[in-house]
Amino acid sequence: MGRTVLSGLFGLLKKKTAQAGRPDMSRLPRHIAIILDGNGRWAKQRGLPRRSGHAVGADTFRTVATYCRDLGVQYLTVYAFSTENWKRPAQEVDAIMKLLGDFLDEAARDVDKNRVFVHVMGDLSVLSDELREKIRRTEEITSRYAGSQVNICVNYGGRHEICQAVEQFMRTYPDHDGPVSEEDLASCLYTAGMPDPDLLIRPGGEFRLSNFLIWQTAYTEFYFTDVLWPDFTERDLDAAILAYQKRDRRFGEVK
Ligand code: IPE
Ligand code: IPE
Ligand code: MG
Q1: Is 16 left (phi over 0), alpha (psi -120 to 50) or beta?
Q2: What percent of the chain is modeled with pLDDT above 90?
Q3: Yes or no: is domain 28-244 CATH 3.40.1180.10?
């Protein structure tokens, strides 16, 4: 009898765990943002140069982007290089830009295999002509798959984005007088026309935004994990989505 109860309980537990393992596909976040952090520490732990961490991190990004596409997540926005990351050694910056260039070439070449629109957001004016041309070409070629969009934030800073939005607004409406609405400003952000992120994931153990999407994350659900980005797997994404699906999003209402 005791044994039956125990095995019944065990069966129930197993069932619950199995159910808890995969996200509810009917309530997926439409837009996921990820701060790709922890590459340097991952490399250091292995006695490797930091650029190796970035290289493995780039592969993790490929895996996660494909998984998001397969799940049906409409927008994935990743933070790859911030306006503050120029403070790093030139060698490391060059390695990151090289990885980005390689990724863009690959995305353009494998467009019909990947089936995602690759878009780059940030102040691109200071990037090399070569890299800017790769960005232009890849965006053009991949735009046919606009239903599944990956935004890569490069030389991106949330505060800079807001400043350039104000400048753009003033240029577009030089005679504007009176209040500026949230919609007016949002229409001048890099993310114009996109929904705000539902879920923001930061691997790497830090609890901060580091100037990422500071306008757009006003009502985003945050998920932090100690897993370093190069170690991040599809199961870690499942865990983040499951945590998100347990949240009660009230948006200021009483529910
Ligand atoms: C994130 O990994 C990648 C970039 C900022 C470009 P880090 O290089 O910041 O890795 P940690 O935080 O030093 O481990
Ligand atoms: C945030 O990571 C920027 C990117 C992942 C591109 P950082 O490693 O630069 O952030 P901090 O310096 O720890 O805040
Ligand atoms: Mg870091």
Answers
A1: alpha
A2: 91
A3: yes
